[in-house]
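Here is the promised in-class demo. Please do not try to memorize the tokens; focus on the logic of going from shape to residues.
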């Protein structure tokens, strides 16, 4: 009887490990897929010299389609004005981006560990800048 009580008591704790592994694999797959989508559109922006309206719309549509999330939940702060590549590097002439994907769950069984729903959510954000490849004489 004592073994049964110990087994029942320890079972929820032992269930955490396979469930947490599953949550981490799902988050890894989502972030890897998100990186691939975002970097494709970042490279398009690099060639065009900015994030065009079409590029932003295609980025949002793809993320919405792949991850089944609403556009309002995404973070998209990008350079929309045209930047040019010159003879020398100018720090103000770079294309900056900040693109974020909401992550719904970091910890499996969060209520068991007394972690609130709001504390178990967040964003995976890609933030950086790239040099434009658009030459001034192309216009």
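The designed amino acids, position by position:
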């Amino acid at each position: 009887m004592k073994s049964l009580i110990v087994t029942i008591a320890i079972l929820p704790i032992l269930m955490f490990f396979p469930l947490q592994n599953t949550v981490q694999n799902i988050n890894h797959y989502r972030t890897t897929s998100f990186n691939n989508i975002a970097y494709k559109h970042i490279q398009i922006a690099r060639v065009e010299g900015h994030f065009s309206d079409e590029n932003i719309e295609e980025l949002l549509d793809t993320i919405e389609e792949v991850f089944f999330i609403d556009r309002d939940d995404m973070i998209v702060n990008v350079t929309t004005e045209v930047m040019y590549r010159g003879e020398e590097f100018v720090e103000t002439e770079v294309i900056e981006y900040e693109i974020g994907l909401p992550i719904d769950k970091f910890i499996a069984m969060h209520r068991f560990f007394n972690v609130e729903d709001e504390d178990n959510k967040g964003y995976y954000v890609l933030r950086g800048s790239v040099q434009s490849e658009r030459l001034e004489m192309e216009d």
